[in-house]
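Tip: read the tokens left to right.
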């Protein structure tokens, strides 16, 4: 009897709800065992606060699942929109705390690079940070292993490009599209893929792996990765 219960628990599908409000391509995704079974995107990022909970309810209802049936909650924890990050982090923290479930905070840049791991062993995600700056990093892939080669930072595109070797890598994200000419001027042999910032699918994939490896976080441990102090904080300290 005990053995049957253990097998049933082990074989039960793992459901993860992922939220991205950090990018301009965000929304909600529902996954089973690391595979996305449904997702909804918000076309207007300014509507994240208004539509996020509605999308969560709609997605779960369509698949006859309840919020408490989720095994884990994943969230893009930045860098990205200050307001968007606060909305996503607060929502997932509330879910985790209210339901006593684990969470996984995942770097937006990491998730974006992971999406294009098939393109090259070195992937440089670039996200437009406005003010003529980008959020950037460099990741190296070796099979299923992912390594941060150059730390995440916010910088002007030209300054950031000076610090990396772009001869053997691909650049992805809306920042790469926006500053394609700057990239090619600095690294003529570099490849710039025409991409957006969608990361919902890879959030689910990374979160599933971390859940299986018990590398999750509590509600209190989920933090936003701003990289750059928010305008509100600057005003408080200015």
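Filled-in amino acids:
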């Amino acid at each position: 009897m005990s053995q049957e219960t253990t097998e049933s628990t082990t074989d039960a599908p793992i459901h993860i709800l992922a939220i991205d409000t950090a990018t301009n391509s965000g929304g909600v995704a529902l996954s089973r065992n690391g595979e996305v079974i449904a997702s909804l995107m918000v076309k207007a990022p300014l509507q994240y606060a208004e539509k996020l909970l509605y999308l969560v309810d709609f997605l779960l209802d369509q698949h006859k699942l309840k919020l408490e049936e989720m095994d884990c909650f994943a969230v893009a924890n930045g860098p990205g929109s200050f307001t968007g990050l606060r909305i996503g982090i607060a929502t997932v923290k509330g879910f985790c705390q209210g339901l006593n479930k684990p969470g996984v905070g995942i770097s937006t840049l990491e998730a974006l690079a992971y999406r294009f791991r098939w393109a090259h062993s070195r992937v440089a995600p670039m996200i437009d940070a406005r003010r003529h700056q980008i959020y950037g990093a460099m990741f190296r892939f070796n099979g299923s292993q992912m390594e941060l080669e150059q730390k995440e930072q916010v910088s002007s595109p030209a300054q950031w490009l000076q610090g990396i070797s772009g001869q053997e890598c691909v650049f992805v994200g809306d920042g790469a599209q926006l500053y394609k000419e700057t990239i090619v001027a600095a690294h003529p042999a570099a490849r710039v893929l025409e991409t957006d910032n969608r990361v919902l699918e890879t959030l689910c994939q990374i979160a599933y792996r971390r859940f299986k490896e018990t590398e999750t976080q509590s509600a209190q441990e989920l933090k936003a990765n701003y990289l750059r102090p928010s305008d509100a904080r600057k005003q408080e300290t200015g």
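The CA atoms of residues 79 and 226 lie 5 Å apart. The first strand starts at residue 15 and ends at 20.
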